[in-house]
Amino acid sequence: MRSFLKHKPFFCAALLLLVLTLPCRDGFTRERGGMPVVTIQGVTDSSLRGALVSLSPLLWPGSQPPASEAALRSRARRHQERLLDALAAEGYYAADVSFELVWATPHPQAVFDIAPGPVYRLTTIEVAYQHAPETPALSPPPVYVSSGLQAGAAARTRAILDGEKQIVREATNAGFPFAAVYDRRVVVNHDTQLASVTYFLALGDELVFGVPRLEGLDKVRPETVLRELPWREGDTYRATLLDEAQEALRKTGLFTVARAMPAPPNEATDGAIPIVIEVTERLHRSAALGLQYRTDEGVGVGGQWEHRNFMGRGRRLRLQTNLTELEQSLSIDYHINQFRRPDQTLTLHAKAAQLDPDPYRSRRFDIGAWVEREITPEWTFGMGPALRISQVDERRRRQEYFLLSFPLQVVYDRRNDRMDPVRGYRIANRTTPFLDVTNLGAYFLKNELNVSHFLQFSAMPSLTLATRLRIGVIGGANRSDVPADERFYAGGGGSIRGYAYQKVGPLDEDGYPTGGRSLTDWSVELRKRLSESIGIVAFVDGGMAHASVYPDFRDTPQWGAGIGARYFTPIGPLRLDVATPINRRKGLDSRLHFYVSIGQAF
Q1: What is the average pLDDT value for the chain, to the nearest integer?
Q2: Of the candidates 399, 370, 366, 396, which has an alpha carbon nearest to the alpha carbon of residue 382?
Q3: pLDDT at 33 exceeding the cut of 50
Q4: Quick one: 427 and 560 in the same domain?
Q5: What's the mean pLDDT in 88-100?
Q6: CA 494, CA 598: separation in Å to the nearest integer?
């Protein structure tokens, strides 16, 4: 029994994950009486076999079984040609496919015997340069482009088509906006089992960026659009810069549609092509209202008002309020794009809040500035000064603070989706030095590292394994000198589900949390998508807030586990989680906790 209790968290986790991996009713194979069965023989390569088997439903796509063997044989001949085409697309140009019908009840069979033969290889890959179709070849060519194909690689159709796209992409990024591959020639030599490819590229004129032409503007100022363009007039034309411009305009939140394209070729003058920027403005003001319910925090309501084109300059002004039993707050943010450089933003922020969890009551006012720079699409760096004036009441004392801080944050984000990721990972580290300006001897440094990872199973794309780890430390001051609202706490919907908010960690003699100087907590979720709008989750959370400066792994972590449901919407999933503490502390922890909010747990 002791051995079972010791490993109880892991037994519970395994049971919950097993429940998720069971197939739902729609996942069972349903046999239709009389429908033909396709059997593939003679293929040992697993990827090739998978590609051929995936075509099996095309043999008999109807809902009624074949009326006769002759009808099935006619369909089998067409499927034979389909399999030959699929084999050629994979480089098997000498493949042979035969079939045999077994007309039996309850399911007739079509058995396809396949002899793939050798894989044909690429030998010569050439690009024929011309100014336009029907014009002489250009020698030497004004620009060299590559298809990305390598001699000796399998002569697959997809690779050849991808090579064509790469040629056009490289040419349009080298100053030729109207470059196009108008023809390609693939010559297959069955004696040598080799294939040569020739692409016929019409380059058109070499041009530079001309005057932008803005279409569709109403209340947004032209300079708001122009400052988002990543090129200057006279720069060499590059198609990727048009893609960047569209993405930048989309991120402003000012437009429902944003397209950038070169004007027709006949509008080019003096070697410059005008660029047409088409936009459709969205409503610049919006209001939102959100609700949440957690058994440990009670009912909460949040409201937001936003102006995305403040003063007509594309700047964002946001007012936000949050009212729960534990927090009442009002904040204002003023967001300035392209602050002093194109990849940098400035946010001026202020917030008044009252926090009233069990360990303390905090009334505070924060004001500050935050500068964030996008180093690359994955790397983001942010920093900025902030000042907090607060009054913090603990059970036996009241403290007033005038904290000056200067947080620095580095984020590396490789997730495929910010709202509902299924692949990739995110690493964020935030370091914040604090100094009490009324007591220069009181200073401390707070560091928090958050890592999350998402793995989508290739064999079952509807299943995602999501993991999260958070580590925090506070150094430079005794725990009593660190404000209670800056210490680390664990437990609750954003931490260890199954435990009350901030109730995991050091406790005083009366069982009230005192907060820690370090923290470790983690989560493992198995997420299964049942349909476009419905999903289920099984999860295990664990962790502990520690009294020591660094995490003390001798402290026994608290474990929570549960299940949840997700309803997916355009703004993110609606979340309902039910969790229970695994190693429940008698007289301190409830048996069940419920969490209702918007967005995944992490």
Answers
A1: 89
A2: 370
A3: no
A4: yes
A5: 95
A6: 12
Beta strands in 216-269 (DSSP E): 255-262
Model confidence pLDDT, tens digit, residues 494-523 = 899 999 888 898 888 877 888 999 999 999
- Nearest one of 391, 486, 496, 501 to 447, comparing CA atoms: 486
Torsion over CA: 259, 264, 269, 270 (sign)? positive
How far apart CA 127 and CA 146 sit, in angstroms, is 8
In a domain, 350, yes or no: yes
Q: Closest Cα to residue 290, out of 323, 313, 325?
A: 323
Total of domains in the chain? 4
- 2: tokens are 């002791």
Q: Do residues 87 and 125 both lie within one domain?
A: no
73 and 88, same domain (yes or no): yes
How far, in Å, CA of 510 to CA of 439, rounded?
A: 31
Residue 12 has pLDDT above 50, yes or no: no
Residues spanned by the domain of 276: 208-281
Q: Are residues 144 and 248 both part of a single domain?
A: no
Q: Are 136 and 113 in contact (CB under 8 A)?
A: no
Residue reference for tokens 């002899």: 115
535 and 427, same structural domain? yes
- Give yes or no for a contact between 187 and 159, defined as CB atoms under 8 angstroms apart: no
Residue 268 and residue 153 share a domain: no
- The CATH number for 215's domain is 3.10.20.310
* Tokens 């010791």, located at residue: 6
DSSP one-letter string for 511-558: S-B--BSEEEEEEEEEEEE-SSSEEEEEEEEEEEEESSSS--TTSPPE
Residue-wise pLDDT for 462-501, tens only, equals 999 999 999 999 998 888 889 999 999 999 888 999 998 8
b/e code 496-507 from CB counts within 10 Å (16+ = b): bbbbbbbbbbbe
11 in any annotated domain:
no
567 and 476 in a common domain: yes
